[in-house]
Amino acid sequence: MKKFEKSEKLHGVCYDVRGPVLDEANAMRQRGVEVLPLNIGNPAPFGFTAPPVVLDAIHRALEDPMSQGYSDSKGILEARLAILDYHKEKGLPNINEDHIYLGNGVSELISIAMQGLLNNGDEILIPAPDYPLWTAAAKLAGGNPVHYMCDESAGWYPDMRDMEQKITDRTKGIVVINPNNPTGALYPKDLLQQIVELARKHDLIIFADEIYDRTVMDGKEHVSIASLAPDLFCVTFNGLSKSHRIAGYRSGWMILSGDTARAAGYIEGINMLSSMRLCANVPAQYVVAPALKNRPQVDELLLPGGRVYEQRKCICDAIAEIDGLSAVTPEAAFYIFPKIDVKKFGIKDDEQFALDFLREKHVLVVHGGGFNWPEPDHFRIVYLPEVEVLERSMAKMREFFGGER
Ligand code: PLP
User: Fold this and answer.
1) Residue 211 needs a FRET pair 20 to 30 A away by CA distance; which of 1, 194, 234, 257 works?
2) How far apart are CA 164 and CA 39, in angstroms?
3) What residues line ligand 1, using a CB cutoff of 6 Å?
4) Ligand 1 atom having least distance to the Cα of 242
């Protein structure tokens, strides 16, 4: 009998955030074990609800007959105009509503951007650690994802020398994830300028994943890299999953900026792919304009006393108390990427560490390898759960690693 195998196109596509550790956690849960979830950047299960402006908009949209049909494949005009204003405010050069595409989350648009560009063997520079969809999408599109290192000793900023060394004749673009998942780093303007110079020197497209740009703490400001590159072709990604806590609505967008004329062929490819998926979820498109037009100056969750801010403090304090763990304090998003002293603990396989920790202490984290980090010495914590859950989890981590400093 014929066996049905996965497509060869998926060979070598590494997307193991959903691997044996998560399988084990699910099996434990089925047995009735309480597993503490420090693994997933999904705000809703942790009591983060969408702001009223979003809920009003989706209710109205569901009653609007227009949202029962397909929309323009790029998205409804009202949403695209609001996105245009938002990115004009952020300084993106040479933008217009024709170069904005709404998607079922940023995820869908990352795939479209990679599928539309890459020929077999084309290279694309992606950070390590990364948000692994980038690597998987580039690979699935036939490309060759090449990782540039981010430097923990320099606040997890990209190592510019490493980035330059990895550029070849086949490199087509650089992916910049800022603010970053999994490190929580926020890049300063001068660093972004260095990346722009490199892209300029080597004629590269900049892909800027900025989905966490409204999730920044400590009074810091996010700078869009595309605003620094009017002469380059840039593709910027953003969405409402995190800032408006509606990951389930699937609402994201992509905006092309700068020298779009030289990308006419690529844009034709993007238009084809955008049309092939017909359109993004339409009711969620009706949320975009109200959400972007009624933004609070600063999200209270990110200020002292706000949940995200206090949960970050809780997790950073707890890590600092565990001998053999260290971490760069994140400035944005809700992730931290701690380092384990692997010699001290004899850890050789980070996925095995995550599995052992789960089995022994019932706490779920994601191993660093899940983010294409090459050494077995890191893992990611999502600090979305309430302080009480974080404290219980970190007490268990302290026990696992054998006591306090
Ligand atoms: N980009 C980054 C850096 C992310 O962390 C995520 C989700 O966690 C996404 C993109 C995907 O977001 P969306 O829900 O818009 O598909």
Assistant:
1) 194
2) 32
3) 41, 105-107, 131, 177, 181, 209, 211, 239, 241, 247, 252
4) 14
* Dist CA 59 CA 56 (whole Å): 5
Distance in Å, CA 4 to ligand 1 centroid = 31
- Looking at the CA of residue 247, tell me the nearest atom of ligand 1: 14
Please give the distance, rounded to the nearest whole angstrom, from the Cα atom of residue 41 to the centre of ligand 1. Answer: 9
Across 135-251, where does the E strand assignment appear?
144-151, 157-158, 171-177, 205-209, 233-239
pLDDT, one tens digit per residue, over 250-263 is 999 999 999 999 99
Position in ligand 1 atom list of the atom nearest CA 180: 3
Distance 180 CA to ligand 1 centre (A): 10
Q: Would you state the pLDDT for residue 205?
A: 98
> Tens digit of pLDDT for each residue in 210-245?
999 999 999 999 999 999 999 999 999 999 999 999
Helix (H, G, I), strand (E, B) or coil at 106: helix
107: CA distance to ligand 1 center in Å? 6
Q: Distance (Å, rounded) from C-alpha 68 to C-alpha 62?
A: 8
CA distance 40 to 45: 10
Name the nearest CA neighbour of 273 among 123, 97, 110.
110
Q: Per-residue b/e over 157-194, b at no fewer than 16 CB within 10 Å? A: bbbbeebeebbeeebbbbbbbbbbbbbbbbbeeebbeb
Find the helix or strand (DSSP H, E) in which 107 lies.
helix 105-117
Residues 88, 95: Cα–Cα separation, whole Å: 8
